[in-house]
Design brief:
Blueprint (H helix, E strand, L loop, with lengths): L2 H10 L4 H19 L2 E4 L1 H13 L9 E5 L26 H8 L3 E6 L32 H9 L5 E6 L5 H7 L2 E4 L19 E6 L5 H8 L23 E4 L7 H9 L4 E4 L2 H22 L18 H12 L2 H13 L9 H21 L2 E5 L8 H5 L3 H6 L5 H5 L4 E9 L2 E9 L4 H13 L1
Parallel strand pairs: 2-3, 2-4, 7-8, 7-9
Antiparallel strand pairs: 1-3, 4-6, 5-6, 5-10, 9-11, 10-11
The protein binds glutamine.
């Protein structure tokens, strides 16, 4: 049943919220055994919210089951961002997005599995690795792998709230064959999001179809005093898409993926974004790692999450806790990020990355003077097998984000739309629009999906 239809049935009193919630919890538990899409299923919370809504359905999302990426704080439910260092951290508050959803009657069913702190493209940098809904030997993509996996598999009305720093919504949406919206930077409050890289992090939505994203987007966007980067303006309601262009460099990939995407498009121009092609990956990884390395400094075993018996000097204790509980990838990013912003190297790496970021933003801005939507594949490959991922070097891993880092660096809204499959493996089309023009993406995305 499509989400909007369910919301209407609830309003008419034609469907039992409690029954729906019990059924989706049962399904989540069963699927979790095989697919590992949840770190925690918040059964007690969901049932008590369902009880309340059943008595008196209230709000625009009354009775709608929602899963939440593990890095977004849910009051009284363990929220550990896929990391062992935050094990047993139970937030005493709700993230603003969660509060908004609950205030509109949504039911929170659990925390979805992800790469530790969002560090990855395959959801393999964690202790609970989600398995692709269409082939369990393959990845769900990352870092919001669990959200995408469950969104594809569930037979009930549902949407998932996830997060993207450099592609973590679009990438798993593409590998799992669902729709994923990453809004303009600052349009959705980050308050209560466990930070990866503050100047890049965005909270967004995943659902089976583009149509289903809209009611959730309407609820979660908007200014929030608690987030100093939150925008105090609303998104543009003009959804008319007059002119589109495909990004030339983005189609220099597997011809099978290229053909599928182009076969769904009509009347497009071809545009070249050479700076984005050349600099998006190095710019993104330098900025993301620099910011991540400062954000992770607070996890030292004293205030949050995992710890060890206090012994030795502060530095010894600190090193022991961090060595034990961070994954190898988190450690790699701490070292590289710290290096990039150290006195003596800062000008050559971090500041240079900030400058190329501006060049990339300008390149996109110029394109949007002429076009409403830019189009590329979401991922350069189909979902790989875990055995193939193991063989990739860190650099090869980072290269997987070649098509998604551009819009993320520029804070541009983007939408991955499911577009057919090759064999059983889904392909996603990435639509990018100018800042605050989400409605153009949603409108155009629906048209592609209809095809
Ligand atoms: N794959 C990218 C990274 O590892 C993006 C992750 C994300 O968006 N959270 O940084």
């Amino acid at each position: 049943m499509i989400l909007q239809h369910y919301l209407k049935e609830v309003k008419k009193g034609d469907v039992s919220i409690k029954k729906t919630v019990k059924a989706i919890l049962r399904e989540a538990k069963t699927l979790n055994k095989k697919h590992h899409c949840f770190n925690i299923i918040s059964e007690d919370l969901a049932l008590s919210q369902a009880e309340k809504q059943e008595k008196e359905p209230k709000g625009r999302l009354a009775g709608l089951p929602i899963s939440i990426k593990d890095c977004i704080c849910v009051k009284d439910v363990e929220s550990r961002a896929g990391s062992e260092i935050l094990k047993d951290y139970v937030p005493p508050f709700n993230a603003t997005v969660v509060k908004k959803l609950v205030d509109e009657g949504a039911i929170i069913i659990g925390k979805t599995s992800q790469d530790e702190f969002g560090f990855g493209s395959f959801s393999t940098n964690t202790d609970n690795i989600p398995k692709n809904p269409l082939d369990t030997e393959r990845s769900c993509g990352g870092s919001s792998g669990g959200s995408a996996c469950f969104t594809q598999l569930t037979k009930h009305p549902h949407a998932s709230i996830s997060e993207s720093t450099g592609g973590s919504i679009a990438n798993p949406a593409s590998f799992c064959g669902i729709s994923g919206l990453t809004p303009t930077y600052g349009l959705v409050s980050r308050y209560g999001l466990i930070d990866y890289a503050n100047s890049l992090d965005k909270i967004g939505i995943m659902s089976k179809t583009t149509e289903e994203l809209s009611p959730i987007f309407d609820v979660i966007k908007g200014h929030d005093k608690k987030d100093s980067t939150s925008l105090d303006i609303s998104s543009n309601s003009n959804n008319e898409v007059k002119k589109i262009a495909i990004i030339k460099e983005a189609f220099e990939i597997d011809p099978k993926i290229k053909d599928i995407i182009l076969s769904n498009l009509e009347d497009y121009d071809v545009i070249s974004l050479p700076l984005t092609k050349k600099y998006a990956i190095p710019t993104y990884y330098l900025i993301a790692m620099a910011e991540a390395s400062t954000n992770l400094a607070k996890y030292c075993g004293l205030r949050y999450g995992s710890t060890l018996p206090l012994k030795g000097s502060f530095n010894q204790f600190f090193s022991e806790v961090r060595s034990k509980y961070f994954t190898k990838e988190a450690k790699r990013r701490i070292i590289l990020g710290t290096f990039a912003r150290m006195a003596g190297f800062r000008d050559a790496y971090y500041l240079k990355a900030m400058k190329t970021r501006t060049l990339i933003i300008n390149e996109y801005k110029k394109a949007f003077k002429k076009y409403d939507v830019l189009i590329s594949p979401t991922m350069p490959i189909l979902s790989p097998k875990f055995s193939e991922i193991k063989k990739l070097s860190p650099l090869e891993n980072y290269q997987m984000d070649t098509l998604t880092t551009g819009p993320n660096i520029a804070g541009l809204p983007h939408l991955s739309v499911p577009t057919n499959s090759i064999g059983k493996l889904p392909v996603g089309t990435l639509l990018i629009s100018n800042h605050l023009e989400e409605d153009k993406l949603l409108n155009f995305g629906r048209k592609i999906e209809e095809k």
